[in-house]
Amino acid sequence: MPTFVYEFGSPSLSLYLFLGLTLVGFGLGLAFWLDFRRRYRRGGRLAGSVVLIAGTLMGAGFGYLAGQPKYFKDLSVDAQGMSLEYGFPASRVWLPWHEIEEVEMRADRLVLTTRDGTRYRSPVVYRGEQEQLMHSIKMVLPESLGEG
User: Fold this and answer.
1) How much of the chain, in percent, has pLDDT values that exceed 70?
2) Half-sphere exposure of 107 (CA within 13 A, CB side)
3) At what angle do helices 11-39 and 44-66 cross, to 10 degrees?
4) 37/54 Cα distance (integer angstroms)
5) What does the alpha-carbon distance between residue 22 and residue 63 come to, in Å, rounded to a whole number?
C-alpha cells in the first residue's frame, strides 16, 4: 500500500519567526522606553514600561500569526485516509477517505473538503511542487474519489 508524508515547511521556521518578531517588538519597545525615560521626568518610566510591554506583546502576536496557525503543517496519507498535523497548540486531525468529499489545489493551497462542508487548508504550496503533491495523493485515493 502506498503511503507518504508531506511537510509544508520547516517546523523550526515558525519558531524562528515567532522569536524574531518578538525580539523586534521588544527592541522597538526598549528604544521607546529609553527615549521616554530621558524626555519625561515624571511618568516617563511608567509610559516607557507600558510601551516596552506592548511592543513585546505585539511582536509575539505578529510572530504567532506569521507561523500561519490556522493551516495544517504536515500531511500523512495512507490507504485508510489522511492525517493533518497543525502543530502547537492545535491537535492532529484524522480524515478517513469516506469523509472526504474533494481534494484540490485552490489559490496555491491544498484544500480538503469533507462531506459535512468542513475545509482544511495547507500553507502555500509552490507551483513546482503542486503537481507532484496532487499526483502523490491521487496514487492513494480510493476509486470513489477518483478524479476529485
Assistant:
1) 93
2) 5
3) 160
4) 16
5) 6
